[in-house]
Fold this protein.
Amino acid sequence: MLYWLANLSDGGDFFNLFRYITFRAGAAFFTALIFGFLFGRPLIDILRRKQGKGQPIRTDGPQTHFAKAGTPTMGGLLILSALLVSTLLWARLDNGYIWIVLGVTYGYALIGFADDYAKVTKQNVKGVSSRIRMILGLALAAVAAAAAAWLHPADLSNQLALPVFKDALINLGFLFVPFAMIVIVGAANAVNLTDGLDGLAIMPVMIAAGTLGAIAYIVGRVDFTNYLGVHFVPGTGEIFVFTAALIGGGLGFLWYNAPPAAVFMGDTGSLALGGALGAIAVCTKHELVLAIVGGLFVVEALSVIIQVLYFKRTGKRVFLMAPIHHHFEKKGWGEAQIVIRFWIISLILALIGLATLKIR
C-alpha cells in the first residue's frame, strides 16, 4: 500500500526508496517483528482466558508432553496478523502473485482455525474431520494453481521446471493444476505434522521462507535469471516482501514459542504457513526445489505415511512413534536437542536448495 509513495518521488529523494523491493522487504520484516513483540503477550493472555484448558494433549504421546497441559493454542494468529498488516502495508497490491499467496495462506488459516476451535471447545484431539479439511484444502489449492498458471508467462504456463538442468521444462498440460494442488496441500500438511515440539516448526518455516523469498526475488529479475540460467517469472520478486514479513512475524512468535512454550502455533498457523510455502513454490516455478528446501517437512510427512502403511500391512511399527520427531523423543533425546538438530538440518537443506540456482 505504501508503494504509492514512490509516485511522490522525483527520482532522487527519500520516497524513491519505496520503489525498491529490498527496501520494502526490510521494512516489512521490522513491521511484522515489532507487531509480534507488541501484541504477543496480550494475544496470549486473551487465548488463555478464552480457552481455559488450552490445547488437549494426546494420551498416546510422550509422557513429557503432559506437563504442557493448559498451554493455549492458535498462536499462529500472532504470525498471521503481523504478516497480513505488514504485507498490506509494504507489498504492491496490484501484483497477482501476492494475492495468490495471501489467499492460500489465509484460506488455510481458516481451515486450521476451525480445527483448533473444535479441539479446544470439545477438548478432543480429533477436531474437524480430516476428510473435510482435505476437501477444503484441495479446493483452495485448485483455485490458486489455476490462477498461478494464468499469471505465468505463456512459455512457462503449465510447465514443470527441473532444477540443475538448464532450460529444462516438462509440459504437464492439464495435469499442472492437480500437480500444483498436491504441492500446496502436501506442504500445508507436512508443516502441520512437524509442529509437535516447542519451536520445532517455526524456525524451519522461516528458513524455507527466506530461501524461497530469495528465489522469488531472483527469478523476478531478468538480469539475475540471465546470469544464472533460470527461468524468468516477471512479478514474483514482490513475494520477497511477503516472505520478509513472514520471517519477522515468525521471530516475534518464536519469542513466546521457545521452550517452554507460552503458546502453541496450532493448525491455524501450521496449515497456513505450509500452504504459503507451497503457493510460493508454485508461483516461482520451483516446486521440486521446495522438496529440497523443505526436506525436513517431507521426512516428517513420509514417516507418518510409512508408519501407517507398514502397520496396516504387518501390524508392526517402523518407528517408535510418528511423526519422526516423536520417535527420537521415545529414544530418549531431549526436546531441545531434537529441535536444534532439526533446525540445523533445515539450514543445510536450504543451502542445498539455493545451490540449485547456480549448478546448471
User: Anything to note?
Assistant: The chain has a mean pLDDT of 92. The chain has one domain: 21-355.
